[in-house]
Structure formats: structure tokens, C-alpha cells
Amino acid sequence: MNLPGLTSTLAVLDRGSTRLRAALASPVRTPRTVVVLGRLLGPAYLVCFVTGFYSHLLQRGPDWLRFPTQPANLFQLTQGLHVTTGTMLLPLLVAKLWAVYPLLFEWPPVRSPLHALERGSIGLLVATSIVEPVIGLINSAQWYPFGFPFVETHYLLAWLLVGLLAVHVAIKLPTIVRHWRRTCGD
User: Residue 22 and residue 13: Cα distance in Å, rounded?
Assistant: First the structure.
């Protein structure tokens, strides 16, 4: 079944997508840039996850789990690291999203069921990656405009984020390996 209107619409979308990608092209928007930013983002999210998990265990851990009380300022140190790293994530995340922005306009948008799963997981990763530090920052100001419990939501989103990050790294591993140690001129 060939629909003339559909064929011409797809052709227009294809040309528009090509023009948009050309307009967004930049010598800085390279796989190498994305990998370098990911090398900063990954450990930062891991630090936030570990320090947040430690905080969760201290405040809501099982009764049988006892933590040492010394050094007395360990909780302050881990929370300071958690908040500082979480705040630092925002500009890094914006930079990474800027670097991959033209990929949103790939044509065709979905090439296979596996590609659809990849794009869907990346969409969830991006959404979670933005929401998690933003609600953390809002919490540090002790402002709660949202209608959900912060602590439980932040904790569950952290687990979701770590899982999505693992899936993302697994999917993008060939690209990561190819661009991990290359210099900018390669």
C-alpha cells in the first residue's frame, strides 16, 4: 500500500532532519566529547549513589545493621560530598545533552526494535538524570513544591538511574572503547 501523502511527508521530514542536523553541526559535538563528559558524569553519579545509599542506611537502615559512631563528622562529610557532587552534575549534564542534541534528529528515528529500546532507555535515562539532581537541589533549599515524598522518591530514582546508566554503558560500550583514549585530533 503506497500512500502518496505519506511518502511526500516522510520525504519532507527527511530533508528537514538533514538540514537541522547540518545547522546543529559543530566541531565540538563529537563522540569523543560525549565520552569525555560521560567519564566525568559516571563517577559523579556513582559518588552520589554511594553517599546517598550510606545516608539511607544510617537513617532508615535495618535494625540489625549498626554503624560505628566514630568519626563523628563522617555523615557531614558524606552528605557534603553528596550535595556538592549532585549540584556539580547539573552543568555536566547540560554539556553532555548539548553534545548529543543533534542525535535527537536522526532519520529514521527508529531503525529496528533494538534501536527503539535503546532510544527509549536513553529517554528514561535523560529524564531521570535531570529530575534526580533537580529535586535534590530543591530539597537542599528545603522547598517542596512537588506532591510526592522527597526521600523515598529520591532513593528510588537513584536505583533507577544506576540501572539505566548500566544499560546505557552496555549499549554504548563499543563507542566508549573507541573514543576513551583517543586525542582530540584523532
Answer: 14
pLDDT band, residue 24 (cuts 50/70/90): low
Closest CA to 139 of 130, 129, 149: 149
- For 130-169, what is each residue's pLDDT tens digit? 999 999 999 999 999 989 999 999 999 999 999 999 999 8
The number of residues making up the chain comes to 186
Grid cell 530539597 is found at 139
CA 57 – CA 29 distance, rounded (Å): 40
Q: Which three cell numbers stand for residue 183?
A: 586525542
By the 8 A CB rule, do 29 and 99 touch? yes
* Residue 78 near residue 54 (C-beta atoms within 8 A): yes
* The three cell numbers locating residue 65: 545493621
Q: Are 28 and 37 in contact (CB under 8 A)?
A: no
Fill in the DSSP letter of residue 89.
Answer: H
